[in-house]
Amino acid sequence: MTIRRTWIGLTYIVFTLLLIIPLIEIFTGSWADGWSGFAEGLTRKQSLHALQMTAIIVVVVTAINTVFGVMLALYLVRAHWIGPRMKRLLNSIVDLPFAVSPVIGGLMIVLLLGPNTVIGSFFEDSGFKVVYALPGMILATLFVTFPLMVREVLPVLQEIGAQQEEAASTLGAYSWYTFWKVTWPSIRWGVIYGVVLTVARTLGEFGAVLVVSGNIMNKTQTATTLVYQDVENFNVVEANGVALVLAVFSVGLLLLMEWAKKRKEVH
Amino acid sequence: MNVMFRSKWWSFGFRSAIMLYFFVLIVLPIIGIYSQSVSSGFIPFWESVSDPLAWKAVLLTIKLALIATVINVMLGSMIGWVLIRYRFPGRRILNSLVDLPFALPTAVTGLMILLLLGPGSFVGELASKMGFEIVFHQPAIIIAMVFVTFPFVIRAVQPLLEEIDKSEEEAAYTMGATKLRTFFSVIYPSMLPGVISGAMLAFSRALAEFGAVVLVAGNIPGKTLIAAVYIFGEIESDNPQGAAAVSVLLLTLSFIILWTVNLIQSRRPGK
């Protein structure tokens, strides 16, 4: 009994020191200069612009990643036109972005599409900036978040098997119809969980975006890179306002994750 | 619309689009960085990698990531065990909190560590009075890495602990084994695959970590400059070839780890 108490006590101590105190610190830290300091930090022109940039990237990346992630997972499980060896190879390539440091992910895009490269200068001549602009930032975030959706949907598809879908199509249902009526209901919670993970990762993405965006204030600065710049300029109190907004969203996403996970297990 | 989806041309185009997206987004950039690192021959590649600042940064990263991983293996095995085996008030809340480091932006994590342990904070003052430094020194980097990789071992161990057959444990007790002995000869072996794959994932994440570390490390070459920050510095000072060379070193290491984890997981029965 005493052993049990010790372990539980130790667990509580670790959680308090490592997770709970830091979380409280973020919430109280932003009030260090009172309400006005917090409000000023948050309503600066660059803060509002940075939050807006983050919102745009979250919406675009989540939409693209969801559609392509679900489609790719479907192909990797069901397609007859990919051989089993090829499937295994593609399957392991999906995970590669997990192993790539975000800074390196950003560097890859600069190397491929930067202003000094063939493709980059081609786009530049036609008046379309990729690197140090929104498209590059979206690409970098898409790269980083790519495995999240595929990894959530793929195991579910493997588990349910193809029988129901085959039955539906033998009975003459169109493929689009089969997807919505047969496949979608079973992968729904996996997709929702994947969306929550993608949003969380996109909201917090820092390294890749910092490299690709050039971090230009009021132009390509996102919420996380603004926090970084404020801290580098010793504006810790002002950094706190934006950090608090990000932290509130993260805690909200954490609750959503829990909820989606529970639903996923039930269905 | 349905007729279009059924037609062969339409589905062929759809397939090609998805596969092209996959190739262009994931495969092409990785090929790009490997070819860029040797773009001006092997001698410049070797020069970039053998620059003392570069290899010291890589070695320092490996060392600190290893320390962080060892800490997380101990904390993770214990917490995974407690959260699965014991029923106590607050268990569910703690279990949900485990994922917090995944949800929190890394730049916010860095700021948080700075506020809690930095100059002017209670702990920071106390530590500097006692004569050692946390923030802008190696301890802060380790703390950042431990925080960011906290969930990995716990989440890898939990499903294995749930599967353990209680009768084996009870048999060990009945035959007179002590609690400690039972733990190390019955329970720990079945946790081990989870501990190993969780530790490897944590290690590779710690190697790659940038956001949380860049704010709390002093970034002094040879002492607190880790590889990801070194790469960032090279990009900023307009040396993409040097950045690519060190990146390739780090990437290759991470790929080997990822591949090993996949191998371990695919060998596990029932998965």
What does this structure look like?
The complex is a heterodimer of chains A (about 270) and B (about 270). Chain A has helices at about 1-30, 35-45, 45-80, 85-95, 95-100, 100-115, 120-125, 135-160, 165-170, 175-205, 205-215, 225-230, 235-265. Chain A has about 270 residues and is mostly helical. Chain B is mainly α and about 270 residues long. Chain B has two domains: about 1-35; about 45-265, MetI-like (MetI-like fold, Orthogonal Bundle). Chain B has 14 helices and no strands. In chain B, α4 packs antiparallel against α11 and α11 (about 180-210) runs antiparallel to α14 (about 240-265). Chains A and B meet through α1, α3, α4, α5 and α6 of A and α1, α2, α4, α5 and α6 of B.
Task: List its salient traits.
heterodimer; A: 267 residues; mainly alpha; MetI-like fold; 13 helices; B: mainly alpha; globular
CATH superfamily of the largest domain in chain B: MetI-like
What low-confidence regions of chain B span 5 or more consecutive residues with pLDDT below 50?
none
The first-level CATH class of the largest domain in chain B is given as Mainly Alpha
CATH architecture of the largest domain in chain A: Orthogonal Bundle
Q: Could you say how many structural domains of chain B there are in total?
A: 2
As a percent range, the share of helical residues of chain B equals over 70%
CATH level 1 name of the largest domain in chain A? Mainly Alpha
